[in-house]
UniProtKB/TrEMBL annotation, chains A, B, C, D:
PROSITE patterns: CHORISMATE_SYNTHASE_1, CHORISMATE_SYNTHASE_3. One of its GO terms (biological process) is chorismate biosynthetic process. Its cofactor is FMNH2. It comes from Glacieibacterium arshaanense. Pathway: Metabolic intermediate biosynthesis; chorismate biosynthesis; chorismate from D-erythrose 4-phosphate and phosphoenolpyruvate: step 7/7. GO terms for cellular component: cytosol. GO terms for molecular function: chorismate synthase activity; FMN binding. This is Chorismate synthase.
Length: 356, 356, 356, 356
């Protein structure tokens, strides 16, 4: 976890800016012999792709991924897999305003403070456009863990939570919000339309679940599975909170309520609850791994906000670019990718250390 | 972040089990020339030390830290600093029950599933006793960032939150709960006494704030400051959720409420709010860095819980060891240590890459 | 140093196969604000480019490098720099023979043993073509260490050593062998012509010197400057030996001959000799850093060699591809690149840890 | 490979100074379930121990190793193994001379230049005493690779090479020089006695061979097995050159002589030669892995040498401490340890990535 690389044995490095010619990822350490072609990756990119509904940015990007190395005759060779996605719709608009003044809530000021300069075009490296590269890399990671099924969905937008009693996996891909509860869809639709019209934006909560993770993944103490997931999720643009299992809810539980009791099962223990979200002591227990993350409302809004210029002068700014009224929506496929990337690495590390 | 090491340029590695002869940390990459003696580290260890009130485990450990290398004539030399803490009160009790059956909520089953064997004495490596080594290492980290002031305190125990209007820094060290609100202290005292008497335990929320962090620390995209803090905090025993700034609260904010507006200040911008918790785009902004974490109630309780044995037989278990009724309390000094360790690394990385 | 990444603070990752569509490098951790364009990198690639004389492979590759990220308005931004070189002359020849039988001295068998499969086209990932990516990355590294001047040259081909008394820096770029001794050039020319005609190949020794390295670079004990250089040089295709300063010659020196005495100088000590090659205790001394490496004769030769097929049958093989009669020649620019990459990292690490 | 840690999946970190209270290593990533006690490590330390003959330093150190963590009931648990060796004979002599002036050939000046201060007692961190910790860690590594047999021996001292035709494995432990040729022993004895009497010292060449390494270990391109070995060996005190297989000799071979031909064997190919030293393309071939390293004569000699003081004044220095007349001798067990450490890591990485 240094700069733009993530992972230990299964490691990926991303590169690229919002308005550069392309962006990509290099996946290193992928096991050899896995069947892999662009067709295995493209569906995941299509899920994250902008411009698919009125609730996401109107930027039109085909997000076509190319595999430039690491595959021979349709199989991974164990050498680095270079993935590239060309930017197509990087509009030649005028970025002089963004270059001049800092957009509050965006990384403009922080990048300038860190590096002394920045690429203002569409947020440069700090743009969520980079997550396309993660999703491509995550597609490779999924092939490493075929025993695991990962799905992410939204459980809350603008303070409106789903009704868990109506949770239906099959609904997730039936609406533009990755919403597992059909009854909540019209409420979110209305809230987002209202936000769009008023030039505002809404926050959201994404939940991501991995079924099929065997017990034993995660390397204590500083490559704990939950620690790696927290790092992975917190690195997603706009995420401000991460929780595992009951998460912040555990603070209100008593010890006897929180311990997930066990009974004998056919294949390992049968747990009577999953407050732990599938991870204890930083190691998977064989239960579903459950992570939730909170995403802030995008700071690109039409309401003027007070700010300062690069020269330190007071000014106001209105962000007119193409943006998502709720960045949480397109974060769902990104969360799945990060989960896959963390789990693929944990699997290889576990195999490496223990032979299991 | 691999196995038992954390950090990039400023890196530490911990070792040791709850009932082994000793535990320790090796701090590598510490800048040379810093004044350092055991007396600089012992106060932090004393804050975390068990047995200081009836609200923490009754294990009696002096937690006296020894510096075995890396210091010459009272100054760090730039070579690895080996810190060792001997275990004194590792009681020779009978651990055959814990060796035979898995304690739900503890790492017993997960360690067995991962490694095929485990040290059952006091939880072995999974014991929170390991955090003593982090606190010692954190004491070294603090010397690297003298410009930063870090303080952690509890904001909630057993569902009882402090009253923020009564927040007083000076109170934090005046009570056994690191509670910044004197009015809440008796409530927590009563709740914890009741929990202790009924053989139960309570969850908690710890908040940790770093003042004085300059703008520009944190290395996007996968060594983002918030990502590193999330990994660091989630690696603390019993933590199930981490949030930065408004955290999960951002999910209910609108874009115009969440962006922290800026005005010209004397030394960098003057922010009109700190929803971001001092971090945007993974980089510090110069505002206070605010992180909060939720800790589950310890699973060592007197109520019998259903579980299985190593051989897969059904049984019940009651955990009789010495334990904290609220592990959140002693997590406060650990949270401070992890914050210091992350910030020290971020400072050196920033200096290395940019010369600033 | 894991898989396809090298370096700590200044880190690069390469990808690509000999006959894939492209190859490249991602340089991560480059300081911001450095002037950088393709024109800064192309000259180094041109030095390594194949097909420039009859003494190197006849493969025709323009090796035009493109910068895909990390640069804005001609300056590095501190974000990852993606460099790509398209393969142009990957001939659609028949590789079924190489796919079927292992070429002795090539990585064919080892890759199969490791991965269970391999890309046989031109050696796939094991081809020295990958070094084009290193040379591009090395071009970026040079910008990080403008105080350092690096030059590599050949001191021996096919057992014919240069005459050190005729050493002339200015000659190095005057002949196709990077030979600093004009008198030796015709001898090497004759030897290589003879080797080419008989379908054979010759070994070589490359020396690489860095002037201007200040005292204090290198991080003991396992990121010692000489240790990093040894790793870097040994990773170059065909290198079988690496030495620093007097290298293997020290084994025959006596203690009083080997210690480089010091006298007071204007700017640090004035050394009376440089047996140490500019590195003592793994740290630079301010003297020129001198590394030498031995390169084996390429194993692609016209003489039939006994080998086995993938199925374990006995057979013979003659390698007919386009190859260098002396791979040592084109290793000189690669050695320079690796030296630059190691030094850039050492500089940033030193600055990070010590602020110097 | 950063600072004081080495390795990827199987990683060790050393700490300690020559005259500090102790030194040690933390071995992280060791597979669980291996039988391990101090008795498994002590024999390797005894081989390296000083004071065992008149040809090594007269410092008396029992070098008794203690295991402080990571082992339960005689088996490794998969958690970090902390190894500690107390320093006993760190003589309270006067180091003011060494503190004041730089010993040429020693790391004194370089450490000062890097860190701005140094521990002058016995060389501090730069002392070869640190290699005791490597040898202890190497003892753990050997348990990870029981299929491999490693032996190191000297092949040259003071320019006197062994006669390879008299090579006898059984002789290696029969003399104080790890010399495999009984006929050479008296020659080395005489040369070393003469060097000792004249207050001088001699260089040496150590060869280290690993039998039983299966094909497929080593992770190209930057964790190549030969690259890791080169880094490991060059990190040993006084080593100035490293070569694999024929090493520098390959520079004088022709392609047809250098390729190791293969015939069908019972278990993988039967190689007709081993010019490659068991590594091609950075990956083991199943042949013996052969590495050789050159060690300089120690610079601690009785002949006065010109040098400068910390203040930059000209002076002379004579090093009077206890030292090895030929540091190459005690480097043999260290070379074995480094070989074991590199191979253990390569094995786990290979298993992690490929499952083989």
């Amino acid at each position: 976890m240094s700069y733009n690389s993530f992972g230990n044995l299964f490691r990926f490095t991303t590169w690229g800016e919002s308005h550069g010619p392309a962006l990509g990822a290099v996946v290193d350490g992928c096991p050899p012999g896995l069947a892999l072609s662009e067709a295995d990756l493209q569906p995941w990119l299509d899920k994250r792709r902008p411009g698919t509904s009125r609730f996401t940015t109107q930027r039109q990007e085909p997000d076509a991924v190319r595999i430039l190395s690491g595959v021979y005759e349709g199989r991974t060779t164990g050498t680095p897999i270079s993935l590239m996605i060309e930017n197509v719709d990087q509009r030649s608009k005028d970025y002089s305003e963004v270059a001049r003044a800092y957009r509050p809530g965006h990384a403009d000021y922080a990048y300038d403070a860190k590096y002394g300069l920045r690429d203002p075009r569409g947020g440069g490296r700090s743009s969520a456009r980079e997550t396309a590269a993660r999703v491509a890399a995550g597609g490779v990671a999924r092939l490493v863990i075929p025993e695991v099924k990962i799905r992410a969905y939204l459980v809350e937008i603008g303070g409106i939570a789903i009704d868990r009693s109506r949770f239906d996996d099959a609904e997730i891909d039936n609406n533009p919000f990755f919403c597992p509860d059909a009854g909540t869809v019209p409420l979110w639709e209305a809230a987002l339309d209202a936000a769009r019209k008023s030039g505002s934006s809404l926050g959201a909560i994404v939940e991501c679940v991995a079924d099929g993770v065997p017990a034993g993944w995660g390397a204590p103490l500083y490559a704990k599975l939950d620690s790696q997931l927290a790092a992975a999720c917190m690195s997603i643009n706009a995420v401000k909170g991460v929780e595992i299992g009951d998460g912040f809810g555990v603070a209100r539980l008593r010890g006897e309520d929180n311990a997930d009791a066990m009974r004998p099962g056919n294949d390992g223990p049968l747990f009577l609850a999953n407050h732990a979200g599938g991870i204890v002591g930083g190691i998977s227990t064989g239960q579903p791994v459950v992570v939730r993350m909170a995403l802030k409302p995008t700071s690109s809004i039409l309401t003027p906000v007070q700010t300062i210029t690069r020269d330190g002068e007071a000014t106001e700014i209105v962000t007119k670019g193409r943006h998502d009224p709720c960045v949480g929506i397109r974060a769902a496929p990104v969360a799945e990718a990060m989960m896959a990337l963390v789990l693929a690495d944990a699997k290889l590390m576990q195999r490496g250390q223990t032979g299991r």
